[in-house]
Amino acid sequence: MDKEVEPFCRALPKVELHAHLNGSISVATMERLIARKPHLNIKHSMTAIHKGQRRTLDECFQVFKVIHQLVDSEEDLLMAAKAVIREFSEDGVRYLELRSTPRVETNTGLTKRKYVETVIEAIRQCKQEDVDIDVRFLVAVDRRNGPEVAMETVKLAEDYMLSSEGIVVGMDLSGDPMVGHGKDLLPALQKARNCGLKLALHMSEVPCQKEESELLLTLPPDRIGHGTFLHPEVGGSWSLVHKVREGNIPLELCLTSNIMGKTVESYEKHHFPYWYKLGHPCVLCTDDKGVFSTSLSQEYQLAASTFGLDQEALWILSQQAISCSFAPEAIKQQLEKRWAEHPLQLT
Ligand code: 6MZ
């Protein structure tokens, strides 16, 4: 636990909507994984970026490759997913949408189906063990892998949406934004939408994605990840802003990730206030709490200290995130009730 985070942010009930499973693994879990595979000779410094350090986005993607070597079996995945869920709960997160890219690992016999089933199993086990958090799963498409894999992943997600009793609720489009083009993935995303999967798409994470974002907005997505370069001041356009506002499409904003991955120069220059001042739905998220050495409480605190948000504003931000989630209506109502009855509730 981070001692610098104020008790209010820690105690605040929170909703996490943008968390990549393998980017969210803590130091403690990483040490266990490293100890299981000494032959890989992986040092902890290779799996996380520590406070005050910065890397290019490209270097961040190298870190994920290292982590994937450490999490390559059902056993590793179950352990890592359960630990991540517990840690979010300990940080006061009461509703979590975890996203992850199904992988094949021939060495250990891991298949994409087993991958999805193991994440679902981790979510079920945490529930049985009474971990205080409601968790849903977004199956991720890595843009690097092209249209055929994307279509396969949609079929997989559809199957599990129908058989996981509401755990699989949607899909994520992520991966290195410099690789591949959204236009090739549109048919798969359209199919996902048509079969009832919700879409959380990384968009305009880097400057050169204007045309792609225009295209993806035609779907339209249910939420946007990052959206760093949507507005005209940073090379986006009014048309993009207009479409996002018109559709009232919530933005998942990850302050520390954007600073550490060098897509945003400083906390002060982050696009959070641009959208927040417009009254647009903004949800603070961690992205990769392990890789970027953060927590959701810390992200709330950073937003407060950088943009002058008081406790009431933080409360409203966390509460409004409920309606941006992909949870079924009944769960949203339960969460609203929990928030309303929370001891921190300001009158
Ligand atoms: C785009 C990202 C990301 O799926 O193995 N991922 N994609 N932008 C980012 N900003 C920093 N952070 C993580 O988790 C790791 C994967 O999530 C995506 C990448 O595809 C990465 O390989 P999973 O659980």
Describe this structure in words.
The protein contains 14 helices and 8 strands. The chain is α/β, with parallel strands linked by helices and 347 residues long. It has an 8-stranded parallel β-sheet with strand order 1-2-3-4-5-6-7-8. The protein is globular. The chain binds N6-methyladenosine-5'-monophosphate (6MZ). Residues 13-337 form the Adenosine deaminase domain. Belongs to the metallo-dependent hydrolases superfamily. Adenosine and AMP deaminases family.
Ligand kinds: N6-methyladenosine-5'-monophosphate
User: What value does the Rg take, in angstroms?
Assistant: 19 Å
Amino- and carboxy-terminal Cα gap: 29 Å
Order of helices and strands: HEHHHEHEHEHEHEHEHHEHHH
Oligomeric state of this protein: single chain
For the sheet with most strands, the description reads:
8 strands, parallel
Strand order of the largest sheet: 1-2-3-4-5-6-7-8
* General shape: globular
How many strands appear in the DSSP assignment? 8
What proportion strand? 5-15%
Judged by helices, strands and strand pairing, the structural class is alpha/beta
